[in-house]
Amino acid sequence: MALLDVTNLAVTFKTPKGPVYAVSDVSFAVGKGEALGIVGESGSGKSVTVKSLMGLLPRTAKVEGTAVYDGEDVFNLPKSRRKHFYGVDVAMVFQNPMTSLNPVKRIGEQLMEGMRFHRGLSRADAKARAIELLDLVRIPDPSSRLRQYPHELSGGMRQRVVIAMALANDPALLIADEPTTALDVTVQRDILDLLDSLRADLDMALILITHDLGVVRDRTDNIVVMYGGRVMESAATEDVFADTEHPYTEALQSAIPDMSMPRGTRLDPIPGSPPDLAIAPRSCPFAPRCNYASDECHTSIPALRAVGDTAVDAASPHLFACFNPRGVAANEGASA
Question: How far apart, in whole angstroms, are the C-alpha atoms of residue 280 and residue 264?
Answer without folding.
Answer: 41
